């Protein structure tokens, strides 16, 4: 298998040549990634040359609109869906909130939805509030020891009343990758749609949502090397069925139906830089011609292989340390490199103690309060979270383990 050229990768990110960040190893990528040069270039160009109302006939406006359309078109190809099934919003939290309002209008009293306690609150709270409208909310609960979501438990929750199942591709504290294809098949067989929170998975390679089968897939561009935007895939069958949340005259446009606020033109356009970056990785590592969807799949696999290789030593170290509790699987190939550990005391002071050693990490509940409580972890105490992505080097991982050994 082709190995990731880490030197080439890091050359695409200005942060790694920034003097103020030298000697600092970034291990809080689950909160937001560094931005690649391709995105920065597009954002800069837009603000310099295209910062006008887009889609008019004059040149700056026409070009601005074309760049926005390019972002949607290319990301849709990478995600394996139709162009108008991709929409942008100010954040995934906001996108989820708007979706919940659409379902609030569409569902009827007596209908049910399923949520999990493994999820980040942004993809749980808005759905749970539908209970105020007479919608039954059923909870698919995790194993209190491992944090695992058992698809067999979901089967027991499903009947003809369930219209929607909401779950994460992976949790931002448990890290285990849920089998979206299998869960979606179970939900669809019961007549329910699925909404997948992909925020914690997408940074490790954009998935082919078309192959996953999800009806809704949400993730955040600022965690996938891009600008601060929420990106949502809404498959056409469901999207045209739900009530329009945008301007009434835009209701025929699928990608405008769930974006009631005007989009951030510059950030939408700059999101095409995420596709530029993926293409640069593909061209550097592979010689054979391929369409954008297949290139994205190859880059996904390239990223994952690098992460799995360097995650396993971290998991081995932490799983053998009696003074901490490693949350989630101990095998790297079944999880994302988002590693949470329960300590004997408060997590935030330990994260602060890592900083002088050049380790940038975080401590807290990370809005996964329900998951922590379900596993018997006090959210007020929190967990130490160590998260990395494909641009993290072997040397940085070795440094992390060395510093942890000293601090813990």
Q: How would you describe this protein?
A:
Keywords: Aminotransferase, Pyridoxal phosphate, Transferase. InterPro entries: Aminotrans_V_dom (IPR000192), PyrdxlP-dep_Trfase (IPR015424), PyrdxlP-dep_Trfase_major (IPR015421), PyrdxlP-dep_Trfase_small (IPR015422). It comes from Pseudohalocynthiibacter aestuariivivens. Residues 26-400 form the Aminotransferase class V domain. The protein has 408 residues and is of the alpha/beta class. The chain contains 15 helices and 13 strands. The strands form 3 sheets. It has a 7-stranded mixed beta sheet with strand order 2-8-7-6-5-3-4, with helices on both faces. The chain is globular.
Quick recap of the structure?
With 408 residues, this protein is of the alpha/beta class. It has helices at residues 6-11, 37-50, 59-79, 92-106, 125-128, 151-157, 180-189, 209-212, 236-239, 265-270, 272-285, 292-319, 347-354, 369-374, 394-407, and strands spanning 25-26, 86-89, 112-116, 136-140, 162-168, 193-197, 216-220, 230-234, 325-326, 338-342, 359-360, 362-364, 383-387. It has a 7-stranded mixed β-sheet with strand order 2-8-7-6-5-3-4, sandwiched between helices. A 4-stranded antiparallel β-sheet has the order 9-10-13-12.
Key traits:
single chain; about 400 residues; alpha/beta; Aspartate Aminotransferase, domain 1; Aspartate Aminotransferase, domain 2; 2 domains; seven-stranded mixed beta sheet; four-stranded antiparallel beta sheet; globular; PyrdxlP-dep_Trfase_major; pyridoxal phosphate; Aminotransferase class V-fold PLP-dependent enzyme
């Amino acid at each position: 298998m082709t190995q990731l050229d880490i030197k080439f990768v890091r050359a695409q990110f200005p942060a790694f040549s920034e003097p103020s960040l030298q000697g600092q190893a970034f291990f809080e990528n689950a909160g937001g990634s560094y931005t690649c040069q391709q995105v920065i270039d597009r954002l800069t160009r837009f603000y310099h040359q295209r910062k006008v109302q887009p889609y008019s006939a004059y040149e700056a406006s026409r070009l601005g609109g074309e760049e926005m359309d390019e972002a949607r078109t290319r990301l849709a190809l990478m995600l394996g869906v139709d162009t108008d099934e991709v929409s942008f919003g100010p954040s995934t939290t906001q996108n989820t909130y708007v979706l919940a309002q659409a379902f609030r209008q569409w569902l009827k009293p007596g209908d049910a939805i399923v949520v999990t306690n493994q999820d980040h609150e942004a993809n749980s709270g808005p759905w749970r509030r539908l209970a105020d409208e007479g919608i039954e909310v059923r909870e698919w609960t995790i194993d209190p020891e491992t944090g695992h979501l058992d698809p067999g438990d979901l089967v027991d929750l499903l009947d003809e009343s369930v219209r929607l199942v909401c779950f994460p591709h992976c949790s931002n504290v448990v890290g285990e990758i849920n089998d979206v294809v299998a869960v979606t098949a179970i939900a669809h067989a019961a007549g329910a749609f699925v909404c997948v929170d992909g925020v914690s998975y997408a940074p490790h390679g954009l998935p082919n949502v078309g192959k996953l089968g999800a009806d809704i897939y949400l993730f955040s561009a600022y965690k996938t090397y891009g600008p601060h935007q929420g990106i949502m895939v809404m498959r056409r069958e469901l999207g045209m069925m739900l009530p329009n949340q945008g301007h009434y005259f835009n209701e025929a446009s699928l990608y405008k139906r769930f974006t009631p606020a005007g989009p951030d033109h510059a950030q939408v356009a700059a999101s095409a830089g995420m596709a530029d970056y993926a293409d640069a990785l593909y061209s550097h590592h592979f010689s054979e011609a391929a369409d954008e969807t297949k290139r994205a799949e190859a880059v996904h696999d390239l990223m994952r292989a690098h992460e799995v290789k360097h995650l396993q030593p971290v998991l081995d170290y932490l799983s053998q340390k009696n003074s901490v509790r490693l949350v989630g699987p101990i095998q790297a190939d079944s999880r994302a490199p988002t590693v949470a550990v329960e300590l004997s005391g408060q997590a935030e002071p330990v994260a602060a103690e890592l900083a002088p050693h050049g380790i940038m990490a975080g401590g807290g509940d990370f809005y996964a309060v329900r998951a922590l409580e379900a596993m018997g972890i006090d959210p007020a105490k929190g967990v130490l979270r160590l998260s990395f992505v494909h641009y993290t080097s072997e040397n940085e991982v070795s440094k992390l383990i060395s510093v942890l050994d000293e601090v813990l």
